[in-house]
Specification:
16 helices, alpha/beta, 371 residues, six-stranded parallel β-sheet
Length: 371
Amino acid sequence: MRKIKIMILFGTRPEAIKMAPLVIALKKDPRFQTLVTLTAQHREMLDQVLNLFDITADYDLNLMKPGQTLSYLTASILNELKPILVAESPDMILVHGDTTTAFAAALSAFYEQIPIGHVEAGLRTKNKYSPYPEEMNRTLISQLGDLHFSPTTGNRDNLIREDISKTQIVITGNTVIDALLMTVTESYHFENPILNTIDYKNKRVILLTSHRRENIGAPMEQIFSAIRELVLTNSDIEVVFPMHPNPLIAETALPLLADLDRVHILAPLDYGEMSNLMGRAYLVLTDSGGIQEEAPALGKPVIVLRHETERPEAVAAGTVVMGGVDKNEIIRIAQHLLDDREAYQTMAHAVNPYGDGQAAQRVCAAIANYF
């Protein structure tokens, strides 16, 4: 019996993390022939994840360049991917989420009339500029896609409202939970020496991430000012801030945080380091999308540093709370969780709506059923 040829395409670290369990599951499944194609929209951070999960690419477009624009990426992916799709003629491509890589790869496959499977389908904020450009990327991929793997019932319902047939949608949970459970261990020893010096038992560690385009400037100034005040007010807090390499972030963060002994500003961490740090943190403040799913799987309350989230299930489940980007509101919410043990425990023990670590297996079964 001929194997089903699946080409998995990704180019950023978050995509690689969430696609890694699927690459591993498909390669183990005798029903499939699996090819991995990278755009390298990100390079170094992407390679870290490939090494962690021992994934080797069949094709690597290696497109990242300094100062790259969305237009450059989209056009380059379309141009470079076409001959690969023509030569390999996969039965289906799989893309993930909402990156420029995912959108351009889906469009390229559509041009070649190759079926498209969309992992993490149906997330919506209904604001096309927040997050930007991700909201429009994922919306457009949904219109191009043939098989939609939705983490939650809410994601499925979003697609149905957009006239996607429910017969094309499968609720799988999110593959990021699969990846996380493969990675976090109690015996983990950090490569970054600073992380090994922190007293996780007697200090309450806040993990901070902030990198979204729409937060750069005044919103980040509010965020970092809130962190500063929380540290000065609470003597048992330590903050770990793996800072995105965008220099505009450093311009705002360093004047407000660099002089504080209990704020550790680090270079970006690889996935293994970040996941295990999250596992030892007390509280997470983030404008990331994926962390809103990951941290609750480890029992960590999350304050979302944005006005909107494409993950309302987490808000409804009580695993995350919207903090926005106002200094006083961030302080109010964080201080409440620091002071009120019952409120903290309620969030920490809420059921994560994003799955049980078996999403990749459900995706494999759905693809096999499709063919």
